[in-house]
Amino acid sequence: MPLTLLGEKTNTSLPVYLVSGGALEESGATSAACAWARANGFTGAEGAVLTIPGNEGALSGAFFGLGGGEPSPLVYGKLARKLPAGDWHFANPPKAPQLCVLALLLGGYAFTRYGAKATPDIRFAAPDGADVEAARRLAEGTFLARDLINTPANDMGPDALEEAARALAARHAAEISVTTGEALVENNFPMIYAVGRAGLVAPRLIDMRWGAESAPKVTLVGKGVCFDTGGLDIKPASSMLLMKKDMGGAANVLGLASMVMAGKLPVRLRVLIPAVENSISAGAFRPGDILKSRKGLTIEIGNTDAEGRLVLADALALADEEAPDLLIDMATLTGAARVALGPDVPPFYARDEELAAALSAASVQTADPLWRLPLWRPYAEKLRSKVADINNVTKDGFAGSVTAALFLERFVEKAARWAHFDIFGWSPDEKPTCPQGGEAQGIRAIEAVLRQRYGA
């Protein structure tokens, strides 16, 4: 990982003095260091870093500001990018050591595949009370999701997404099978095929299984639209600029699967990813087409740019057939979710009140924002079609995230519990734990719920 966590400080380790409310002396630093901070205008603002000079031009430590109120538990991620390279430790302990070490790891991330620079080579002694291995598992899963999202579509088509899933499966001795191209029709995945058939690379359904067959079944479904032109209802150019991230749901469930398998949770894990490109050609599906789904429901296509729910529907129907104890789907599904809650807070939908409460609580505990929105059933009428069982969009455009969730709900009947996450998969601004770019959302909170529910 870009930042290395150590079990204890080294002989060359330098102290980081945490400053709350501008109280420099309470940080434990020397009076000379505090005078240096005042002379340089350091007030302890949240996330601010000031290095402290030592003898003969060397460093003797650094101040880190926590602000005047309750700091973000992940603010420590800034240290991974603002400190000079070398060995460091906390002079005074942080209040939430587990979130602190996770923030340090996450803050060290950089996407370097195409030439961007890595973050500084920092080794940091973990504070007492932190589970370093648990933090590393969460960081590795997060980095996997970020790497996949950040990779452009010319290097992350359905075939490359399959290879990423195969690599993860091989790492954890999981089983994997893939249904590709015309075989999708033969095996009754008609909507996955219809959405992806116009792409240069054949559409496919990735199916990964791991864990004892007798364990509780947990199934993850991720939208793997590797690029979304909008199809024949083509997006404007400005709306296509980030469409490499439209496989963010697939990236997130692979990241979550990495966390589950690395943590050896006693579950029967299944990961389903419909991997397609929503492209344009003479063979593209059209507005007004009526598609038959795996479940047997007929779908009138009101808009080809609402393709994610179509491929998810076939995958959800397959997942539902074995009645898992928990079924989760994740997708970069609607702009309406961003209008409602912005890019940082993904909405989720759940029928089970206990599950919803657990997710909301875990969101706070893990500093992984989520917000529950309602499955408001009267809105289901807006998806009515005069010629088919259901339309894939509404006519008025209101409550777009809610109606998308209601569409997906039609394909889940047997699963004991189901939750849908309408994620953005992208950080438009640099944050303490994430540069601008692809981001994992909700998977740390979900992992915490899985560990609470199924952990040994």
TrEMBL record:
GO cellular component term of the entry, any: cytoplasm
Keyword Hydrolase: yes
Annotated CDD domains: Peptidase_M17
PROSITE patterns: CYTOSOL_AP
Keywords assigned by UniProt, alphabetized: Aminopeptidase, Hydrolase, Manganese, Protease
Top-level lineage group: Bacteria
SUPFAM superfamilies: Zn-dependent exopeptidases
Classification via Gene3D superfamilies: Leucine Aminopeptidase, subunit E, domain 1 (3.40.220.10), Zn peptidases (3.40.630.10)
GO molecular function, one term: manganese ion binding
Similarity remark: Belongs to the peptidase M17 family.
Protein name: Leucyl aminopeptidase family protein
